[in-house]
Structures are given as structure tokens and as C-alpha cells.
Amino acid sequence: MALLEPHRLIADEGFGQAVRIAGRALRDPVARHRVLQMRRVFRRYRAHLGAISLIATPTPFQP
């Protein structure tokens, strides 16, 4: 899972949004710690991680 790798973040979000995300993480010590901790877990278990996508669509309300 390359979700928190800089090159992947830029590819997914665009350069401007990636800079905003990084800026917020740099200014907030709690968020920065949480993001870096997630990145360490992703890197440690990268051989065993994958991704699952779930797409939900609303159904009409029926009382």
C-alpha cells in the first residue's frame, strides 16, 4: 500500500492538495505522529497488505 508515499500521494491528490495535506500534518504534532505511525505499519507489512474497494449506492427510502 503506497497510500502514504509522497509520489503516490501526489499522483492520487495532485501536487497542490498533497502540499496542503503535508502542511497540515507538519503543523499538527498529533496528526503527524498518527500519519507516520500508519506509514510505518504500511511499510512493515507491505508484502501482506492489499486494498479492497467498496462502492455503495443509496436505495430509495421505503417506510
Q: Would you give an account of this structure?
A:
This protein is an all-alpha fold. Helix 1 crosses helix 2 and helix 2 packs across helix 3. The longest helix is centred in the middle third of the chain and has 16 residues. The protein is extended and about 45 Å long.
Secondary structure topology:
Layout: H1 6-13, H2 15-27, H3 29-44
Helix pairs in contact: 1-2, 2-3
On the 0-100 scale, what is the average pLDDT? 88
Shape: extended
Structural class given helices, strands, pairing? mainly alpha
Biggest sheet features: none
Helix content: 55-70%
Total beta strands: 0
* Strand and helix order: HHH
End-to-end separation: 42 Å
- Report the total helices: 3
Structure characteristics:
63 residues, mainly alpha
Care to give the gist of this entry?
The chain is an all-alpha fold and 63 residues long. Helix content is 59%, strand content 0%.
